[in-house]
Structures are given as C-alpha cells and as structure tokens.
Write a structure and sequence with these properties.
CATH topology of the largest domain: Ubiquitin-like (UB roll)
Helix content: 40-55%
Distance between the termini: 114 Å
Largest sheet: 3 strands, mixed
Strand content: 5-15%
CATH class of the largest domain: Alpha Beta
Shape: elongated
Number of domains: 2
Number of helices: 6
CATH architecture of the largest domain: Roll
Structural class: mainly alpha
Radius of gyration: 38 Å
C-alpha cells in the first residue's frame, strides 16, 4: 500500500512539473511572437511613411506661376495668375478677351509675359492717335528706364546691347522660345555664347 501511494505521489509531482514547464514555454513563445509582430508592424509603418514622403516630393508641382495686370480695352481688367512661359494672348483670354474697340494690331499677342508685368491694350482711337505707346507694355524698351526687356525684345532691339550681334541675339530668342520667359537677368548667362564678361557689360542695360 505504501509503495502504491508513493508511486501515485511521484506521478502527481511529475505531472505538475510537466504542466508548469509546458505553460512557461507557451508563455515565452507567446511573448516572442508578440515582439516579432510588433517589430514587423513598426517596420511596415515606417516604410509606409517613407513611401508617402517620397510620393509627396515627386508630386510637388514644378511649374512656377507668375502674376500680370491686364487693363485697357479688355472685358475684365485685373490681376491674373499665369504659367511662367505664358504669352500675352493667354493673359488677354484670362481678362475675358478684347473689347470691340480694342486695337488688334497694337500689341504682339505672341510675346512672352513676365512676372509683375502690366499689359495695356489700347483702343483703336488711341492707336490711331498714337497716344498709347507709353501705356502699353508690349514694347521691349520701357521709356522710364531705357532698358531692353529680355522677355519682349526683338532681334534688332537685342542687337543694340554692347557685344550682342545678330548671332547672339538669335541665340537669346531661341533660348526664350525653348525655356520660356527669363526669370532673372542673370539667366542670360545660360544662353550659348553669352558668358560673364558680356553679361557684366550689359547688365545695367537690360531688364525682364
């Protein structure tokens, strides 16, 4: 009888030890699984944030807007936002188009506009009387400063600058056609054949 009771007691102790060890092992495995899951979740969130930041950088618009003031013989005088390589006809469209009394041939509508420019469209009466020349900005030479405006100058007007002959004038026009309006007078040095030496000679003679 004593032997049987002793055997039962040993069996019970062995069973308890087994249950304890099994429970401890499961708990450790559970903790390890939770730690791995948390690490994977954090890594996934970090990668998502990085991808989102990258997408935002790539989605940032590169086009720079400019603002011009359109007035005179247009339907809606005002300040309008345009893309940087816009032309005068686009500014006129934003202003609701020309009025019936507008002088169609007074302004070269194919010219580029520049930031802060005032575009005045004269009436036919003003055009016939010759009284509009100081009001419209379609001319590349502003009478108030006597400078050649890079964004509107013709080849002949560019040739009036020191060191700018026909070839360099054509290069300036070609650059303007392919890159849009100049954003600074220093950008002139990006034109083929025009380096710092020539720029230094004419920088006081030019404007946008």
């Amino acid at each position: 009888m004593k032997v049987r009771n002793l055997w039962k007691r040993q069996l019970l102790i062995t069973f308890c030890i087994f249950v304890f060890c099994f429970g401890t092992g499961c708990e450790q495995k559970g903790e390890s699984f939770q730690e791995v899951t948390l690490q994977e979740t954090e890594q996934s969130l970090n990668e998502t944030e990085k991808n989102k930041e990258t997408e935002e950088i790539h989605d940032t618009p590169k086009t720079t807007s400019i603002y011009v003031y359109v007035c005179g013989a247009v339907n809606n005088t005002g300040v309008y936002e345009l893309k940087k390589d816009a032309r005068i006809y686009e500014a006129i469209d934003c202003a609701g188009g020309l009025r019936e009394d507008a002088a169609l041939s007074a302004v070269n509508q194919a010219e580029y506009v520049s930031d802060g420019q005032q575009i005045y469209i004269p009436t036919q009466e003003e055009y016939n009387a010759g009284s509009f020349s100081e009001m419209t900005t379609s001319s590349s030479t502003d009478s108030s400063d006597g400078k050649v405006h890079l964004n509107t100058a013709t080849k002949d007007e560019l040739k009036t600058l020191s060191g700018i002959g026909e070839s360099r004038a054509e290069s300036i026009l070609a650059y303007r056609d392919s890159h849009g309006a100049f954003q600074s007078i220093e950008e002139l040095m990006n034109v083929e054949g025009i380096k710092e030496g020539i720029y230094e000679k004419i920088k006081d003679q030019i404007a946008l």
